[in-house]
Amino acid sequence: MPTIAIAPCDRLHDYEEAVRRAGGEVRVLDRAKDRPESVVGAVDGLLLAGGGDVLPSTYGEAAHPSYDAAEPGRDDYEIELARRAVEADLPMLAICRGIQVLNVARGGSLVQDIDSQVGTSINHATEDSPVATAHEVWITPGSLLDRVMRELVESDTCMVNSRHHQAPKALGTGLTVSATAPDGVIEAIEDSSRRFCLGVQWHPENFYRTGEFRPLFEAFVEASRG
Ligand code: MN
Question: Is 173 exposed, middle or buried (0-12, 13-18, 19+ CB in 10 A)?
Answer without folding.
Answer: exposed
